Amino acid sequence: MSINSFGHLFRVTTWGESHGPALGATVDGCPPGVPVDAEMIQHWLDRRKPGQNKYTTQRREADEVRILSGVFEGVTTGTPVQLMIENTDQRSKDYGDIKDKFRPGHADITYFQKYGVRDYRGGGRSSARETAARVAAGGLAREAIRAMAPDVQITGYMVQMGPHKIDRDAFDWDQIEQNPFWVPDAKAATDWADYLDGLRKSGSSVGAIIEVVARGVPAGLGAPVYGKLDTDLAAAMMSINAVKGVEIGEGMSAAMLTGELNADEIFAPTASEDIVEVFFKGARLDSTGAYIIRPQNENDKERWFKVKDLFHFTETKGGMTLQVVRKALNKRMIANGGLPVVKRAGPKYSSNHAGGILGGISTGQDIVVRFAVKPTSSILTTRRTITKTGEETEIITKGRHDPCVGIRAVPVGEAMMACVLLDHMLLHRGQVGENRGIIGPGA
Is the Cβ–Cβ distance between 237 and 214 less than 8 Å? Predict the structure, then answer.
């Protein structure tokens, strides 16, 4: 039995080793008709690829993805999508000295104990290089989510490096993409740069904590009792190389709270917060993957226009009647032929200690997951170990390694969040379709 797959309906199987010719993912269960191409997936791989700055491994991999199957004329066909990434910058000679030694902190010894053979070149299958395949699969999942639930946004960032934490009061979403650590705190980014630079030069390493937030997730994803959304999220994050702990919402800190503090109080939604969505009739895709939206005057061919990412336009009701909203949208030449649909605002919560999940089912709040990544075990400090024959010896791990593997774990965590959310969207759609329990006026 081989355990190289995860997911229920959206099922991902990764394959390949760190120093093999290639690695990749076979994705089964992606819905048909999802607009996707290699460039879309490449965007996410580029955020993870090595060698982009001095704080990550200097292995130079382009990580260019090739789509070998499951996509035709720019859309998924509903058949397995095969994604392949070639390895082009392996330096297997760096590992010649350790082929008979077990690196402390690595999976070398457990792989050998289990299988009786191991690929010592960069760790083989146990290398974090495997996560490139997950990010590729996550890129595909994001495009499917975009088609099914365009409001969902998935963002990961580092909240701690070694003993150094971010200042939550200085949290700034815009800062995340502005520094090499994906940290939402400008001062922390500067401080961490000096801290990690010192560790890097000394040949040491450090761990980190990453937080991944999914906003705009609808209520109702997940199922009792063995199909909980947080169960699958925890398993997905825990499966990432070097991860040693996972929290949902308040996590371990919930043990220190009283019931009054931990339980998120619930408040009624108001009609003024309802969202009016206008879905387009007659919209179609062009060759670039953009939606062609019919203008107000169908005979005015010069005024047709494209909407690249959104298949619907949303606007807060704000007390206006549906007719007024529809008229306002028509004036923008967006909603001709569209049917306005009211999405009722969900309940409001006083806080989010639950991390957006209660009883294994999403509440409609932000889903918040954190995971801890251990320090990279490949360091230049001499360590004691044994050989395959049981002789005690010393080892220094050469090669190119991340001084803080948590940096490149951020896009990996985002990818796993995307895969799990899409999987549960498909499960939810298959079991109940739309949510049954409507809360608020007119329920």
Answer: no
